[in-house]
Amino acid sequence: MMKTSCIHFHFLLVLLFCCAFSSSILMTNAVYAGVYACRPDQILALELFQSEFDSHTCNGSTYDDSYSCDNTTGSMVELELSSGCLKGILKPNSSLFELRHLRSLHISNNNFKSSSLPSGFSNLNRLEVLTLSSNGFVGQLSFSFSNLSQLSHLDLSSNELTGSFPLIKNLSRLSYLDLSSNHFSGTLNPSLFELHRLFYLDLSKNNLVSSSVPYEFDNLNRLEFLSLSNNGFQGQIPSFSNLSQLSSLYLQDNEFTGIEEPISKLINLRELDLSFQNISYPIDLNLFSSLKYLMTLILSGNSISPASLSSDSGISLDLIILGLSGCDIRQFPNFFKNLDGLQQVDISNNKIKGKIPEWFWNLPNLDIVNLANNSFTGFEGSAEVLVNSTVTLLDLDLNNFEGPLPNPPHSLSHFSAWNNAFTGSIPLAICNRSFLTILDLSYNNFTGSIPRCLLNFQSSLTVLNLRKNSLEGSLPDMCNNGALLQTIDVGYNQLTGKLPKSLLSCSSLRFLNVENNKIKDAFPFWLKALPNLQILILSSNKFDGPISPPPGQGSFAFRGLHVLEISYNNFTGSLPSNYFDNWQTSSFKKDQDGRIYMGDYNHTSYHYGYNLDLRYKGLHMEQESVLTFYATIDFSGNKLEGQIPESIGLLKALIALNLSNNAFTGHIPLSLANVTELESLDLSNNQLSGTIPKGLERLSFLAYISVAHNQLKGEIPQGTQITGQPKSSFEGNEGLCGLPLEQSCFGSNAPPMQQPEEEKEEDEEEVLNWKAVAIGYGTGLLLGLSIAQVIASYKPEWLTKIMCQRNRRTR
Ligand SMILES: *[C@@H]1O[C@H](CO)[C@@H](O)[C@H](O)[C@H]1NC(C)=O
Ligand SMILES: *[C@@H]1O[C@H](CO)[C@@H](O)[C@H](O)[C@H]1NC(C)=O
Ligand SMILES: *[C@@H]1O[C@H](CO)[C@@H](O)[C@H](O)[C@H]1NC(C)=O
Ligand SMILES: *[C@@H]1O[C@H](CO)[C@@H](O)[C@H](O)[C@H]1NC(C)=O
Ligand SMILES: *[C@@H]1O[C@H](CO)[C@@H](O)[C@H](O)[C@H]1NC(C)=O
Ligand SMILES: *[C@@H]1O[C@H](CO)[C@@H](O)[C@H](O)[C@H]1NC(C)=O
Ligand SMILES: *[C@@H]1O[C@H](CO)[C@@H](O)[C@H](O)[C@H]1NC(C)=O
Ligand SMILES: *[C@@H]1O[C@H](CO)[C@@H](O)[C@H](O)[C@H]1NC(C)=O
Ligand SMILES: *[C@@H]1O[C@H](CO)[C@@H](O)[C@H](O)[C@H]1NC(C)=O
Ligand SMILES: *[C@@H]1O[C@H](CO)[C@@H](O)[C@H](O)[C@H]1NC(C)=O
Ligand SMILES: *[C@@H]1O[C@H](CO)[C@@H](O)[C@H](O)[C@H]1NC(C)=O
Ligand SMILES: *[C@@H]1O[C@H](CO)[C@@H](O)[C@H](O)[C@H]1NC(C)=O
Q: What atom in ligand 10 is closest to the CA of residue 542?
């Protein structure tokens, strides 16, 4: 069995709009330079405060523009240090708390290294505005904010604060309160309901619980924004009958069991998210029909009454955004006919069968359409049915579409249709869709050749994924017109010919995968010239010849390459000892949400990302966002000979090395012990001799090793990572002894040793080892642990983030 790798791509449809509200408020607190003279003691206190932190992370000028003083007293009244450059503990006696006249203090986005929130803030009792978000503060609040009686704006969001709901008594002026994304637990403190001036209240993403929403919310009748999402609220969704100013209401991800009818009194409501509740009955959309300003309605993850989705439901809502993902819908919602204003619609993850009606594409404002993971089979109307639609993002993934693909809309920019059964050739009309940025037709049954025009004249194309179709012919010339292309995956087709030299014009190319085709060519050393190439996969083709450059023609040195897979070709020759010199892997760019994206697609609503999954002997490692710095090499199944280069030890970031099924000779390089990140090492089926280097037992992440079928001898190094391997990893070497093999190295009268695990436990053992590895990596490592999950990895990777809620994955 061999290691294979699988790369799959996915859209991330992210409907984002609630965040705009808060940022616009913060912007009003612009801070100007210290135009007026500040008293020396105030400047001194600021400088002392500054010196409490590690200033290396800061650029010199950061402090200058960040404060202002009262023009008569010289006291500092405003301080803005949200630059992210303060790093260190914020001490209880910090000089910050000497600045007692501060009225406005912004110190968000710093790194206070898990300090607790110092009580010194309660001395700053003239504060009107205090923002402390995203600072890494931990633990319980040790003080009350009650001293800050002037406070009107308090933002503690995105820290790690714990304990019960903070005491905010006496803050009669408070109009803005953001406690979101912490770990506050327990019930709401009644003092909250005395804050009569609140117009913005965000308590989302905490562990607040209540068997019902307290009726006292009705006291807060100035509220315009209310979010209780991602908590543990239960009972009925209240009618909030006094909150006539409310325009945004987010209650998603709670455990509400029903909706109180008079929710229709919220006449100013514009945005409503009730997704993912535990409502046991189907929601009737008529409930919302009196909300005449409602623009956004998200009901995903609840069941919806089928009658209210039909065309004669009579519902007229002026919606712009509608989320009905995972609502157990079985028929196309014909009431969309009445929604002329609809721009973004998500009906993914339902059970809708049959064809998409023709009228749908005539909705005049349609922009983003997500139909993924249903059972659609086709389109009503002609092959031209889509062309005049205004849709720019269309997702058809994971349906049963069959037959030829209709010509795509003129305005299309992002198109994904993977995992369907489309047949016929890729429509040529796609070539003159000049906004097309992402095209994913993978896992279909397209035949014919890749349209020459597509890669040559499409100037905006950034991602092309045609994996697993039945495409023939050679890879066309590309990037003649602009060079934005970053990702090309044409793996698992029937492509022939050579790699086109025009690839060199694709200066943005990061990812090239042509695996499992019939390409016959020499190793493309010339791709070295691509400055951004990170992943190159040529496996299972008919490449041949040497993979080391002829003498005098420079070093191998693909500078930025992380992943090089050339297995199962016909490569020959040996590798010089300096083969891996100068291979400097740089780190992947990680997005704010921790994922790796192959492109910088700054559309406000979506990302197109990729996962790189590595599979070794039934182990499956999901490389999602985990390692920003790693490398893998797979040269297996070729005819490489000679020694394994010592320079392999220079690749510190290597996590997997597969040189199996070649004709390597000589010793296992000692330098492998220096590749400290190594998790998988396969040297089996070569002609290696000598002993297994002792140093390998130090490789603490090593989860899989095989040196089977070589000519190795001597004692197997007795580290736990190695002796825990199955016997089969060492078999076929006449001279090896020691655990896990049964041959003892000390002759037959040696003391009995611990018996090795039985063969049948093999799979489970590997899995356990991988768990150990996962712990070694700390948080964030996602591991798929079984063969079943390898198969599952071909399932949807849809990620829908709606209204700033946490990522929710549906597989
Ligand atoms: C400091 O300045 C450099 C270049 O001007 C910039 O790349 C870097 O991000 C800045 N660092 C901070 C912490 O602002
Ligand atoms: C001082 O500031 C106030 C507003 O903060 C302004 O009205 C006043 O004109 C200023 N005085 C001087 C002398 O600049
Ligand atoms: C704060 O207290 C620590 C001891 O707890 C002391 O070393 C430090 O000098 C004090 N800093 C200031 C600014 O007073
Ligand atoms: C409130 O502020 C005063 C000084 O203004 C201080 O003495 C007192 O300790 C503060 N109270 C609390 C609860 O922090
Ligand atoms: C509330 O504020 C007033 C002054 O505005 C003060 O006298 C009183 O002590 C405060 N109460 C608490 C509990 O801090
Ligand atoms: C509703 O708001 C009014 C003021 O607009 C207030 O007098 C009344 O007490 C509130 N009702 C409830 C139940 O809080
Ligand atoms: C969801 O509702 C069912 C009854 O409809 C109940 O048994 C279950 O405990 C509820 N789950 C949660 C998480 O509230
Ligand atoms: C699309 O629009 C063009 C121009 O408005 C029109 O000629 C054509 O018939 C339309 N096609 C379809 C299928 O509606
Ligand atoms: C797609 O093509 C493959 C091989 O050509 C075939 O086995 C499979 O049945 C086809 N699938 C459909 C849905 O036509
Ligand atoms: C590898 O090359 C040899 C001759 O160089 C040829 O006989 C053999 O068929 C090739 N194998 C593959 C899989 O292309
Ligand atoms: C995306 O936005 C970031 C900052 O908002 C910017 O630095 C970057 O250049 C943008 N990328 C593109 C491709 O527009
Ligand atoms: C391992 O690396 C160290 C320096 O990082 C080097 O001194 C040593 O020679 C290397 N060992 C081997 C066996 O290459």
A: 14
